[in-house]
Design a protein that fits this description.
heterodimer; A: mainly alpha; B: mainly alpha; about 75% helix
């Protein structure tokens, strides 16, 4: 973990790409602020442009209260992260690429939360999956980083497919693709037979993106991303996309027992398990990742409810968490950047060296712990009020929230106390405070945690309520305030703090205990993931070895067999009862040529030497060309003849490099007969097809069309050529593309064979 | 290949075949022929040449790399469809310039593209095989 930072002086303090590009989120944030007053008065901003109307797909964007809240978080975090990264990433390679990915990701996120068309939302959803893969795997030269990035894209990508399936099922069930029509859509989807399937698909999509158990493990591993990315993706934005999805689907799918039961249980378990695991690691970023699991679990749990306090709790905590977690991630990154490590065992006594970062961490950690006067306290109060008001499992919800909050209190103490207070480790060199670009973000976002904690009524009226109203149309007013009176939530808050202190006191024992449990787990989801992944790779390689083993004979046999089976079956079922067999006496020349072809084919099959076989093949081709010529197709005959000539030339070139033909050791009996059977059956099949076609009068309307129009419309008397270069020239263009591609592939193959 | 008869015959043949290929290419719109067939003839000519004189001489003779030839053919064929777009007609619509009995049009450019693409592909494979 300790990296060499001795050359830190040579690295520039910040890079211009980051500074300039951070203006984009800032500008967007300013624009959002202009739209803000209108939106909270209920005037959602909407734009629509047609895209693919036949698929119900339009570029329809809508900014309502919920979208606004998300957009504000995304652009604010985007600004600070970009600013931060301009220093954090300074001197690294591929910075242009980094900032393009970063801002591309931000725009895709904004697309998700403003899209008013479900399919459009899905497009952005996939864009975030791909961009997050590129961002997590940014240090692509490290194999572990690549594995982790792949894990993230496989899991979230699979979830994306589920979401797509859910969207299609929803469409089948008659659901609207317009999100803003969902409140007030009624119970038609909830009562539909497909409802459970739709629910499961949407839920899996949300669970993978928002790292719910059992799909949670990609998130801690994704910490191998550069820290600004972790702060942006894994605290403030991407992992919230699943939460956003659940919020949007709430009026359409929510409120059933299936919804409530599943979300509460999944969320509760994720929250508890995340919070417990947060005690185990020493890497600060991993600790934060597990606390993020806890937060996402809590949000899912509260979205399981249908009461206004419950949904308000989820929304409030979303804000609380985005602010403190982004700030903590950035601050941890600063510590890492300035000291070269983020391992708790090697950190301590940083307060005098990095006072401003310490202050930001303190503010964020206190908010996370839920101390009074901090925004986290407000979030916790409403959480308990929400848990107690839930229809299903209120006791479980309350206890899950209580224990995970208590664990959070302990973890937040660890995050602040261990690195900043206590003794400074001997091996730590001189440490300077991070540059202003890296201090601003944590400070402002940590500071907002205090300001919002002091004026919760303002936040409530201007941010939370408009957001909740967007997906909870009953418009029940839940106002946040600093002091609700002496009630059960306040009592539970006090219990949380006390319990957190106790946990902090016994954290070492607990850490050992958790590590012990983790070590004993036999079946884990990462293990299952690995088994599935290995299985896939094995299956793919087995498949390739079996079907692409390089034996041309086998390829041809498989192709011919498939043709015979697929087309032969229906043909046998519909074969005409009698064929008109043409009288060979009137066709003496063609009959003679056919006999010649047959003889040549016999020569090919029985030849002992390759040269003879190739000669025989050439004779077959020449015979076919003669037939074409005889029936008035000189172009085709010419082409056929030339292709045969060229084939003989090319094959004879290859010939010198091949081992002697199997000739001497004859092919084994059974295989020979199988090949013969296959050849004869494909021959019989094609012959009977042609005879079957001849039973009916030939449709010559196409020929007639081309005969009439060829010269008039295309100035050509050679119909074949006119068709190739004029009437069907797009087809020809496609064909020559294939020819060129095949040639390139062939050349590459030969080159690799020569070098390998 | 060490055969004086083949060598001498090739020298005579190759030139004739290439001229014949151009002839086939140009007359293709009215009589049997066209870009594809012409490319096959030209390809056979170069194949003969390569067999007797070796692939290096063929490379020198055609100057361009076969892949460049193929790519320029594709570009030419694809580009032949563009003028129609400027006249608000569908892509690849044939445009003609007529003077009495003589007419020239974008399909000819297209056919030359086909010729180059196919010839380039044949040469690429042929020369790679010979050099292997």
């Amino acid at each position: 973990m300790i990296k060499n930072r001795s050359n830190i002086a040579k690295v520039p303090d910040c890079c211009r790409a980051g500074l300039i590009s951070s203006l984009l989120p800032l500008l967007l944030f300013a624009l959002l602020c202009l739209a803000w007053p209108g939106v909270i008065q209920g005037r959602a901003i909407q734009v629509e442009m047609p895209w693919i109307p036949s698929l119900d797909l339009s570029l329809r964007f809508r900014l309502d209260g919920l979208s606004l809240l998300f957009c504000l978080i995304i652009t604010l975090a985007g600004f600070f992260v970009s600013l931060y990264a301009s220093s954090y990433m300074a001197g690294k390679q591929h910075l242009g690429r980094f900032f393009v990915y970063l801002h591309g990701f931000m725009l895709a996120m904004l697309g998700i939360v403003t899209a008013d068309n479900l399919i459009l939302l899905f497009v952005f959803w996939e864009a975030t999956t791909i961009l997050s893969y590129l961002l997590i795997g940014f240090d692509h030269e490290d194999a572990t980083v690549r594995d982790n990035a792949r894990q993230a894209i496989l899991i979230t990508g699979a979830g994306g497919l589920f979401l797509l399936l859910g969207i299609l099922l929803l469409k089948t069930a008659g659901g609207s693709m317009i999100l803003s029509q969902w409140p007030g859509f009624g119970d038609s989807i909830r009562e539909h037979a497909l409802y459970p399937a739709i629910f499961v698909c949407v839920l899996v999509g949300a669970m993978t993106k928002s790292a719910q158990i059992p799909f949670h493990f990609w998130l801690p591993n994704a910490m191998s991303a550069p820290t600004p990315i972790s702060a942006f993706l894994h605290a403030a934005t991407m992992v919230k996309a699943g939460i956003y999805l659940l919020m949007r689907f709430h009026p359409l799918l929510g409120g059933t027992h299936l919804w409530m039961g599943t979300l509460v249980v999944v969320g509760g378990i994720t929250a508890l398990w995340g919070a417990v695991q947060a005690l185990a690691p020493c890497d600060l970023k991993r600790i934060l990742a597990y606390t993020t699991l806890m937060a996402l679990g809590i949000m899912t749990l509260f979205l399981g409810g249908r009461s206004a306090p419950s949904l308000t709790a989820a929304t409030t905590f979303l804000m609380v968490h985005a602010l403190y977690k982004a700030s903590l991630f950035l601050a941890v990154g600063s510590m890492d950047h300035q000291t070269g490590t983020r391992d708790l065992r090697h950190l301590g006594g940083l307060l005098p060296a990095m006072p401003l970062t310490a202050l930001a961490v303190a503010a964020a950690a206190l908010s996370m712990a839920g101390f009074p006067l901090f925004f986290g306290f407000i979030g916790k109060e409403i959480m308990y009020a929400g848990a107690l008001s839930e229809d299903l499992f209120p006791a479980f919800s309350t206890l899950a929230a209580l224990f995970s909050n208590a664990l959070m209190t302990a973890v937040s103490a660890v995050i602040f106390i261990t690195p900043f207070l206590g003794r400074r480790p001997a091996d730590m060199g001189p440490v300077r405070e991070a540059p202003w670009t890296m201090r601003l973000g944590p400070a402002v976002m940590g500071g907002l945690g205090i300001i919002f904690g002091i004026v919760p009524e303002w936040v409530s009226a201007n941010l939370i309520e408009p957001a909740v109203f967007a997906f909870h149309p009953s418009r029940e007013e839940i106002r946040l305030s600093l002091f609700h009176g002496l009630n059960l939530p306040l009592l539970l808050s006090m219990v949380t703090l006390a319990l957190g202190t106790v946990i902090y006191r016994f954290r070492e024992a607990l850490r050992a205990f958790v590590k012990n449990i983790l070590a004993r787990l036999r079946v884990t989801t990462p293990g299952i993931y690995q088994v599935i992944l290995d299985g896939f790779i094995q299956m793919a390689s087995g498949f390739a070895q079996r079907f692409q083993n390089g034996s041309l004979h086998r390829y041809l046999a498989v192709i011919v067999l498939a043709v015979v089976m697929v087309t032969g079956w229906p043909w046998v079922a519909h074969i005409p009862s009698a064929f008109i067999v043409p009288d060979p006496r009137g066709l003496i020349m063609p009959t003679g040529i056919c006999l010649f072809i047959l003889a040549a084919a016999g020569l090919v099959v029985t030849a002992r030497r390759r040269l003879v076989a190739i000669g025989g093949l050439g004779a077959v081709g020449a015979g076919v060309a003669l037939i074409f010529l005889m029936f008035g197709a000189p172009d085709i005959a010419l082409t056929q003849l030339l292709v045969e000539t060229l084939t003989v030339v090319i094959v004879s070139l290859v010939l010198f490099r091949l081992p002697p033909m199997e000739g001497g050791r004859k092919r084994k009996g059974l295989r020979k007969w199988m090949d013969a059977g296959l050849s004869v059956s494909v021959g019989v099949l094609v012959t009977t097809w042609l005879m079957g076609i001849l039973q009916k009068p030939l449709d010559r309307s196409l020929t007639a069309f081309f005969e009439i129009n060829s010269y008039v419309a295309a100035h050509g008397r050679n119909i074949v050529n006119v068709i190739l270069v004029d009437f069907r020239s797009l087809d020809t263009l496609g064909e020559i593309c294939v020819v060129v591609l095949a040639a390139w592939a062939g050349v590459a193959l030969m080159r690799s064979a020569r070098e390998g | 290949m060490q055969s004086d008869i083949l060598k001498t015959a090739t020298r005579l043949m190759v030139g004739l075949m290439l001229v014949f290929a151009v002839y086939l290419l140009l007359r293709g719109h009215h009589e049997p022929g066209g870009g594809f067939i012409a490319a096959l003839v030209a390809g056979t000519a170069f194949a003969l040449f390569a067999v007797t004189e070796g692939p290096a001489r063929v490379r020198r003779a055609i100057r361009l790399r076969p892949s460049t030839l193929a790519a320029s053919g594709l570009a030419l064929a694809a580009g032949a469809g563009l003028p129609a777009l400027f006249l608000d007609r569908p892509y690849l619509t044939g445009l003609w310039w007529k003077s009495g009995d003589f007419s020239l049009g974008t399909p000819l450019i297209f056919d030359v593209g086909v010729f180059l693409a196919v010839l380039g592909s044949i040469l690429a494979v042929l020369l790679a095989l010979e050099e292997n």
